[in-house]
Write a structure and sequence with these properties.
2 domains; two-stranded antiparallel ribbon; Helix Hairpins; 6 helices; binds adenosine-5'-triphosphate; Heat Shock Protein 90; alpha+beta; 320 residues; binds magnesium ion; 55% helix; single chain
Length: 320
């Protein structure tokens, strides 16, 4: 009996020892695992940093190529007309000293205007690029998306015809002095979102001007174009959100272009720089929102911009 007990005690202490060894080995392997996870996490963060750097470089490269391409055309114009002025004034009176040569006034005036146009194009491109590269610092307040849209329509059409608006919700506008475009509103369940009024107004203006250009390009003189603005409640990452959609009756986004419309310098418009929607996408991202592009069943384009409602945005901030 005693022998059995002694053996049993030995067994127990062996078992305890074995258990302790195992526990220690487990703790050690857990520590090793933790170290490994930390290393992997650091490696992943570094890889992500490298990827972000690569993406930035790719975007910068894309921008540089775009800038070079955009600037070449107006520069060509400046060179051509400056050359014409020089040659013409030299031919006019080759024997006279330069200060006394008569200038063909009408031609000089025309070429000077062309030079002015080309330099204006260049300044616009440079301005757009500076705008695009400047960091955005949104100052968030409670804003109603439909009010921002109305203010953007005011900017699109600074001098509306008397009957073009009803002061509550504008019913029509004419961007850049073009034909009147009808505005149809569909606003339901509207609550404020957290947003910077000026920045959102700039973003909506870009979308509205694109819609106006698309409608102008495709509408027949008899058929009026329509821009439909819908505001509705939705969810974004499972939080309450508001969506504003701009639908137009233009020809829609070209097949295969939907993926590209937000890329800097992507444009199919004569005289376009292709920075409008890239800037809109930046503004939406700075608001923690989402933007999508597509075509309606009727064939026109639709741009949907979704923003967290003011309370949800604040709750999310507190949580972070
Ligand atoms: N409402 C629309 N209907 C059809 N295509 C559109 C519409 N809005 C944008 N697009 C397409 O997306 C392209 C990019 O638009 P974006 O606003 O970025 O540049 P842009 O209007 O061409 O030039 P800008 O820099 O002057 O705005 C347009 O050239 C056009 O091909
Ligand atoms: Mg545009």
């Amino acid at each position: 009996m005693t022998v059995f007990q002694t053996k049993s005690l030995d067994d127990i202490s062996d078992a305890i020892q074995a258990y302790n060894d195992l526990a220690e080995r487990l703790t050690e392997s857990q520590r090793a695992l933790k170290r490994e996870v930390l290393l992997l996490r650091e490696e992943l963060a570094e890889k992500n940093r490298q990827l972000a750097r690569k993406n930035r470089l790719a975007i910068l490269g894309e921008m540089a190529a775009g800038v070079a391409h955009e600037i070449r055309n107006p520069l060509g114009g400046i060179e051509l007309y400056a050359g014409l002025i020089q040659r013409e004034s030299a031919d006019a009176a080759p024997q006279a000293p330069p200060a006394q040569r008569p200038l063909p006034a009408a031609k000089i005036g025309k070429w000077a205007r062309r030079i002015e146009d080309a330099t204006r194009d260049l300044s616009r491109i440079v301005g757009d690029i500076l705008d695009f590269t400047r960091p955005l610092e949104p100052r968030m307040k409670k804003v109603f998306l439909s009010q921002v849209a109305e203010a953007a329509l005011d900017l699109a059409d600074p001098a509306p015809a008397q009957n073009a608006c009803d002061h509550q919700r504008r019913e029509a506008f004419a961007a850049a002095g073009g034909r009147l475009i009808r505005v149809a509103w569909d606003v339901s369940d509207e609550v404020p979102v957290a947003g910077d009024f000026q920045l959102l107004q700039r973003a909506f203006l870009n979308v509205i001007l694109n819609a106006a250009a698309a409608i102008r390009a495709s509408a027949s003189p008899q058929k009026a174009g329509t821009l439909t603005i819908r505001v509705s409640a939705t969810r974004l990452e499972d939080l309450p959100a508001q969506r504003i959609a701009f639908e137009d009756t233009g020809p829609g986004i070209g097949a295969g272009d939907v993926e590209k419309v937000f890329d800097p310098f992507f444009t199919t418009r004569e005289g376009g720089t292709g920075l409008g929607l890239a800037q809109v996408a930046r503004i939406v991202a700075a608001h923690g929102g989402r933007i999508t592009a597509g075509n309606t069943a009727a064939g026109g384009a639709v741009f949907s911009l979704t923003f967290p409602v003011a309370e949800a945005a604040r709750a999310k901030e507190k949580h972070q």
